[in-house]
Amino acid sequence: MRDTDLAGLDEVCNHERSKYIEGFTTGKARCDKNWARAFYDVIPELGIKTMLDVGCGAGKFVLDMVTRFGADFAYGIDIASVHLGLVPDHPDVIFFDGTAKRLPLPDNHVGWVTSTDMLEHIHEPDVDQVLDEMVRVAHTGLLLTICHRESGEVVQGENLHPTVKPWAWWLEKLEARGLDVEILTDRAARGSGDDTPVICRFKGLA
Predict the structure, then answer these.
(1) Which contiguous run of DSSP H or E holds residue 155?
(2) What is the mean pLDDT of the chain?
(3) CA dist 4 to 21, 78, 127, 175, Å?
């Protein structure tokens, strides 16, 4: 199932939407990479029953959550891929065409919010709002991977990673939101070393 929620699209979001639609359509940007594989070893231990993937791309991870890992229901949201029809259909999944700045779910609606190699795509003035929205809709925690280098993809003359920050910058923001942060260093070592995968649990639930 697919739904559209474009109420949160301001001027910046509209620009980003047009950029990613162009990128995905022309092949200048990819949405089919499943960055969430860094978590596949630990997902069974977490017992995730409901989740929202922010910046879901082609929806491979969302689909795996219900077909492979036994989640009862899963959501995905993306600013371009859902609009382009690049996500799969499944009765236990809803994909939203919308923005991470305004997640179309009630407070505490899902156990986990996931977002893999997406936060660096957010412009720095909007990072706090996006993190606040993720925290608002989750009641257990967040699974995140965050990249610390510029992207190899450029669309409309813009690098697709506008917010390139050291890990300490992100950690301060996560801990300020009441999250206990566990870094999966062994999984980071399997990749390029440019990404930090973390499990973030609300304090008292760790």
Answers:
(1) strand 154-155
(2) 91
(3) 15, 10, 22, 32
